């Protein structure tokens, strides 16, 4: 996730910290076993960096969806992506109502990918016919996969001439 979203898995996040700690331990053991002072010194650097990264990730405040929504409404593209990411996380955690609310905010900011994701959420819950307006909006916004739904033979256009999007 991007920096400032509260998850801390971006560059320098806890993922790197979790890598540096065991790598530093392995380097330490190798340095002690071989008597190589350089490896031991390097291992200390890895240990300290790993611990600092883990502490840094714990001290970050969680993201505020209301602040993201306000920034997205003001045209901040990073905030729009942040809303979409929070929505997808909520959907994966089994909170579809929260996911829908967040996706609608991102859609209001004009995010085509959120239009698609909202269509998928509505389709899962209410069926393809209910999701059609969201898929159409995404297709009109240029979403390639959504456009396929409206081609002749597509799920939303099983026969006839090619529609407008």
Question: What are the SSEs and their pairings?
Answer:
Elements lengths: L13 H21 L2 H23 L5 H9 L3 H16 L3 H13 L3 H15 L1 H13 L3 H6 L16
Description:
The protein has eight helices and no strands. The protein is mainly alpha-helical. The radius of gyration is 23 Å and the shape is elongated. Helix 4 packs antiparallel against helix 5.
Could you provide a short overview of the structure?
The protein has helices spanning 14-34, 37-59, 65-73, 77-92, 96-108, 112-126, 128-140, 144-149. By secondary structure, the protein is mainly α.
What keywords describe this structure?
165 residues, disordered N terminus, single chain, mainly alpha
Could you give the distance between the termini? Answer: 32 Å
Q: Roughly how much helix do the residues carry, as a percent range?
A: over 70%
Number of strands: 0
The helix/strand order is HHHHHHHH
State which percent range the strand residues make up.
Answer: under 5%
- What is the count of DSSP helices, taking H or I runs of 4+ residues? 8
């Amino acid at each position: 996730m991007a920096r400032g979203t509260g998850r801390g898995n971006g560059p320098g996040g806890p993922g790197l910290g979790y890598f540096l700690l065991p790598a530093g331990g392995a380097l330490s053991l190798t340095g002690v076993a071989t008597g190589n002072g350089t490896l031991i010194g390097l291992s200390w650097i890895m240990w300290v960096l790993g611990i600092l990264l883990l502490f840094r990730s714990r001290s970050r405040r969680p993201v505020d969806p209301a602040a993201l929504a306000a920034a997205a409404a003001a045209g901040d593209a990073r905030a729009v992506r942040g809303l979409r990411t929070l929505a997808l996380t909520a959907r994966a955690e089994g909170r579809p109502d929260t996911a829908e609310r967040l996706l609608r905010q991102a859609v209001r900011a004009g995010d085509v990918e959120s239009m698609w994701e909202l269509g998928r959420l509505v389709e899962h819950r209410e069926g393809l016919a209910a999701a059609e307006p969201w898929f159409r909006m995404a297709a009109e916004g240029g979403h390639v996969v959504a456009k396929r739904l409206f081609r002749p033979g597509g799920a939303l256009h099983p026969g006839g001439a090619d529609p407008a999007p």
